[in-house]
Every structure is written in structure tokens, then in C-alpha cells.
Design brief:
The protein is α/β, with parallel strands linked by helices and 246 residues long. It has 9 helices and 7 strands; from the N terminus they run H-H-E-H-E-H-E-E-H-E-H-H-E-H-H-E.
């Protein structure tokens, strides 16, 4: 099983460049700062088991384990991400409180194993959303919670340029309301779909200011500028989502 992202968007060199923008061990908007805000709303307690889908470099998993005493199992469909995360895990000496595995979440077979399923900006890579949410529902214990963030699209028609961007990246994007409907259809209750597109724009501006003026980072600078423009046009947004298994 080979993920083409390991040779395109997520080469080792590219991941480390992204890390310079997002912060140490992170590869999602807002880095540690946004992670703290999100996780503070999840009611984590020592001994809980967390499944981190698209665990990346491990930043959120490390933070949850160190701060709340939970056990975190990260799954990522990028070997490069898992390689880096396991190396960082050894540096932190967290023992078995955090584990990582390479694999496709759609091929997983978890049954009522986790108190929380957590994911940051990874579901955009997964096109079969009904199957994804069925699998995550099955993975949760009764009364377990799902929380994720993801890039979203606006309510209007996609421009040709935005459509080309989405196709080039291989993304599958939904509106915040659309994601909420998918969660309800999968059987989740207490669904909250929060449109964070305005906050996304503010984070993008902050991150753009941190991009070094180096030739090797110019492509990333352009990428951030283009995301900001799409966000300003209402095309590219961001959502935070909560749901519970009855």
C-alpha cells in the first residue's frame, strides 16, 4: 500500500517546511495554539483512549497524552508522517501512552475501543465520507465523542480556479452544513458544525507572516497567499465539528 502523497505534498522535505510555519510537531492550522483551544473543550480525563486519525507529526497526540494523561493511538496514511512522529515520540519518552501506525483508516477494524476520535484537517483526503463516518462510529464506545476540523468549501458555486485546485490536490470538500448532515446520517447525535472560516483567514495571515524570505520557501508563500485569497472570496473555509455516539 503506497500513498502518492508521500512523493508529492508530503515528502519529508515538504513536511519539515510546513512544520516551520505550523510549529514544532504540527502540520495543521494554528499549531499548538489552536490545539489547546480545541482540546480544552473535549472533557479529556486520565485513562481515556483517543484515536487520532491523520495524526501527522504527532503534535496533538503528544499534547493530549502529556497534559491530560490519556492514551493516544495515531493512524496516518503517510509513511513519512509516521516515520517523523515515531522519531519525535522517542525524544519525548512517553512510553506506551502514545503509539502510531501507518495505514488507511477506511481499512481499520476498531470496535468500541475509543472514548474520543480526533482528527485535524485530514478528512479532505478521504472521498468516501459515509464509509469513513461509519467506521469512526463503530470505533467509538457508547457515548464516545468525535471531534475533527477540516478544510471546507463555501456555499456558492466553485470557481474554475478553485475547482482546479481541489482536483490537483485530490481533495473532497464539503460545506460546514454538509458535514453536519453527513454526521447525522451516520447516526451521530449532538452534532455541532461550527464555521471557522473567518478564524481560518486570521490564522493564515499570521502564518504567512512567519514564512521565511528564502528561495526554498517561496512556493509555500505563494500557496498561503492563494489560500488567503480563496478564503477572502468565501470559497475556501474551515470547520470544527463535534458529534457523539448514542
Amino acid at each position: 500500500m503506497t500513498n502518492p502523497l508521500d512523493s508529492t505534498q508530503y515528502t519529508l522535505t515538504s513536511i519539515l517546511k510546513y512544520e516551520r510555519i505550523y510549529g514544532h510537531n504540527f502540520i495543521s492550522p494554528g499549531g499548538l495554539e489552536s490545539t489547546r483551544e480545541m482540546v480544552s473543550r473535549l472533557g479529556l480525563r486520565p485513562g481515556m483512549r483517543v484515536l487520532d486519525v491523520g495524526s501527522g507529526m504527532g503534535g496533538a497526540a503528544f499534547y493530549m497524552a502529556q497534559t491530560f494523561g490519556v492514551q493516544v493511538h495515531g493512524v496516518d496514511f503517510s509513511r513519512n508522517m509516521v516515520t517523523l512522529a515515531e522519531a519525535r515520540l522517542q525524544e519525548l519518552a512517553l512510553g506506551t501512552r502514545v503509539t502510531f501506525a501507518y495505514g488507511d483508516i477506511l481499512e481499520s477494524d476498531f470496535h468500541e475501543a475509543f472514548d474520543l476520535v480526533y482528527s485535524r484537517d485530514a478528512f479532505l483526503h478521504i472521498h468516501d465520507k459515509p464509509r469513513l463516518f461509519h467506521i469512526l462510529y463503530r470505533a467509538l464506545k457508547a457515548q464516545g465523542q468525535l471531534f475533527f476540523t477540516d478544510y471546507c468549501r463555501g456555499d456558492g458555486e466553485m470557481s474554475e480556479a478553485f475547482r482546479a485546485y481541489v482536483a490537483e490536490r485530490g481533495y473532497d470538500l464539503h460545506t460546514p452544513r454538509g458535514y453536519g448532515n453527513l454526521l447525522a446520517q451516520a447516526g451521530f447525535t449532538d452534532v455541532v458544525a461550527e464555521d471557522k472560516s473567518k478564524a481560518f483567514g486570521e490564522i493564515l495571515r499570521q502564518e504567512l507572516a512567519r514564512v521565511p524570505e528564502e528561495a526554498s520557501m517561496m512556493a509555500i508563500r505563494r500557496s498561503w497567499e492563494e489560500k488567503l485569497a480563496r478564503n477572502a472570496r468565501g470559497e475556501q473555509g474551515w470547520g470544527w465539528f463535534w458529534a457523539r455516539k448514542p
